[in-house]
């Protein structure tokens, strides 16, 4: 099974997808297609999406039995030891000396703030 979810994509792309998949809700398409058709559909989605976003979920052999592909999406699919996870990109840090993702405790240690009075 293949599921494609579109957000803010042009109507021409939606019309193209309805030739192969069923639109079960606005911007949500579901169906069974071959691997070759699925890869060509995804190439068409990426080509025609414009400013929109797209997410495709599909069956694969493996532990999860599911894989993802994303186009201009906030969450990025990442393969971790054969398991596909969705990773949210960290926001840029306000302090360029300290990369994003560091805890408050790590920041205090790095900059010498112990939090204790002398």
What would you note in describing this structure?
This protein is an alpha+beta fold and 118 residues long. It has a single domain, classed as Alpha-Beta Plaits (2-Layer Sandwich). The protein has helices at residues 11-17, 35-48, 104-111, and strands at 2-7, 22-25, 28-31, 53-58, 67-71, 76-80, 83-87. A five-stranded antiparallel sheet has the order 2-3-1-4-5, with helices on one face. A two-stranded antiparallel ribbon has the order 6-7. The longest helix is centred in the middle third of the chain and has 14 residues, at 35-48. The mean pLDDT is 81.
List keywords for this structure.
alpha+beta, two-stranded antiparallel sheet, Alpha-Beta Plaits
Mean pLDDT: 81
CATH class: Alpha Beta
Spatial ordering of strands, largest sheet: 2-3-1-4-5
> Which structural class do the helices and strands define?
alpha+beta
CATH topology: Alpha-Beta Plaits
Summed up, the helix count is 3
Task: Outline the secondary-structure elements.
Elements (H helix, E strand, L loop, with lengths): L1 E6 L3 H7 L4 E4 L2 E4 L3 H14 L4 E6 L8 E5 L4 E5 L2 E5 L16 H8 L7
Antiparallel strand pairs: 1-3, 1-4, 2-3, 4-5, 6-7
């Amino acid at each position: 099974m293949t599921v494609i979810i579109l957000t803010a994509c042009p109507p021409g792309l939606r019309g193209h997808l309805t030739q192969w998949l069923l639109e079960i809700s606005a911007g949500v398409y579901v169906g069974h297609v071959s691997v070759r058709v699925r890869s060509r559909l995804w190439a068409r989605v990426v080509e025609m999406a414009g400013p929109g976003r797209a997410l495709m979920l599909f069956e694969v052999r493996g532990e999860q039995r599911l894989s993802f592909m994303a186009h201009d999406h906030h969450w990025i699919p990442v393969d971790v030891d054969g398991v596909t996870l969705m990773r949210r990109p960290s926001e840029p840090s306000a302090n360029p000396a300290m990369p994003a993702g560091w805890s408050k405790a790590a920041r205090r240690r790095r900059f010498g703030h112990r939090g204790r009075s002398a």
